[in-house]
């Protein structure tokens, strides 16, 4: 099976929310039934006309605008509208994953249709080659739509994490190396290790260091620096990113493969995530550095939007 084309990897594709695509496969993995009535749902009745089937599906497409979970960023959510079907089918997508070994993206979600209209072959079967895989025929045309607000929030969070990197590089003289980024809204942070003897930040200096870091972060937002997204030859990417390339990507089996490099606030980093167009777009929610923690030579910088966001 061919790898799924990821629209968001290009600069302009990063900001594209919709695309047409072709179905590679659509597998029903579970069927639940309810009866729709005013005021709520009840278990299935003897009257099939009132029964609704909720099909949990896994959809593979040839191309998608949805960002799969990974790289420190949650997946997009959204919808897949299946065109030309006997029934209007709309899949609500709640999770998107990628098989890193094949590049194939799976969209997980649900489709709700009248129970009587579920074809007899759409039965749950662990065999991926079973008839359930043909509930929506391969080659069917669909429209993929990313939830705009969720994408926007995820992109701001990821960009803000890179601004933390850029701010750290301004004030630490290269002493701290980013080793982990968690760009989820339930507590985003970037973690650094120190190459200096003893590591970390002396307890007496932490308050002053945090003040300088907050100021540098805010200056980069005020400068409204444009984001640049490029896919570069491996050697050029290495010259820009240095050893961050090896830390962020395991390219041992494809050492000469092109690399997607995202430049945020002048900071070059290999990255597969989504971002906003410029650092100035982080002003709206009041993104800032919130604090830092030092433990065993590691420095964890917490960041986030203003409390009221």
Task: Characterise the protein shown here.
With 309 residues, the chain is of the alpha+beta class. The protein has two domains: 5-146, Elongation Factor Tu (Ef-tu), domain 3 (Beta Barrel); 150-304, Threonyl-tRNA Synthetase, Chain A, domain 2 (2-Layer Sandwich). Helices cover 17% and strands 37% of the residues. It has helices spanning 148-171, 206-222, 234-241, 244-248, and strands at residues 5-6, 18-37, 40-42, 51-61, 63-64, 78-82, 89-99, 104-114, 141-146, 176-182, 189-194, 228-232, 259-264, 267-270, 288-295, 298-304. The strands form four sheets. The chain has a six-stranded antiparallel β-barrel. Mean pLDDT is 87; it is low at 37-41.
List its traits.
309 residues; 6-stranded antiparallel barrel; 4 helices; 2 domains; Elongation Factor Tu (Ef-tu), domain 3; elongated; Thr/Ala-tRNA-synth_IIc_edit; Alanyl-transfer RNA synthetases family profile domain-containing protein; alpha+beta; 16 strands; Alanyl-tRNA_Editing_Enzymes; Ala-tRNA-synth_IIc_core
């Amino acid at each position: 099976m061919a790898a799924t084309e990821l629209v968001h990897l290009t600069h302009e594709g990063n900001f594209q929310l919709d695309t047409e695509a072709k179905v590679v496969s659509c597998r029903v993995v579970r069927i639940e039934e309810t009866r729709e009535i005013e005021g709520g749902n009840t278990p299935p009745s003897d009257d099939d006309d009132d029964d609704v089937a909720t099909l949990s599906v896994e959809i593979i497409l040839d191309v998608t605008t949805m960002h799969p979970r990974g790289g420190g960023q949650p997946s997009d959510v959204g919808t897949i509208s299946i065109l030309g079907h006997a029934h209007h089918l709309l899949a609500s997508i709640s999770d998107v994953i990628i098989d890193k070994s094949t590049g194939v993206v799976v969209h997980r979600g649900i489709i709700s249709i009248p129970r009587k209209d579920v074809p007899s072959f759409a039965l749950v079967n662990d065999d991926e080659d079973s008839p359930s895989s043909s509930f929506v025929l391969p080659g069917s045309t669909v429209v993929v739509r990313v939830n705009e607000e969720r994408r926007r929030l995820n992109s701001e969070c990821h960009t803000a994490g890179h601004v933390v990197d850029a701010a750290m590089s301004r004030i630490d003289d290269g002493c701290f190396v980013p080793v982990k980024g968690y760009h989820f809204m339930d507590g985003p942070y970037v973690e650094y290790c120190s190459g200096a003897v003893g590591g970390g930040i002396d307890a007496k200096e932490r308050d002053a260091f945090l003040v300088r870091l907050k100021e540098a972060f805010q200056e980069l937002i005020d400068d409204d620096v444009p984001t640049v997204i490029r896919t570069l030859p491996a050697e050029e990417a290495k010259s820009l990113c240095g050893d961050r390339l090896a830390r962020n990507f395991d390219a041992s089996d494809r050492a000469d493969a092109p690399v997607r490099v995202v430049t945020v606030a002048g900071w070059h980093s290999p990255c597969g995530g989504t971002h906003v167009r410029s650092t100035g777009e982080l002003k709206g929610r009041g993104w800032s550095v919130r604090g830092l923690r030092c433990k065993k030579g590691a420095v964890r910088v917490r960041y986030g939007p203003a409390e009221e966001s």
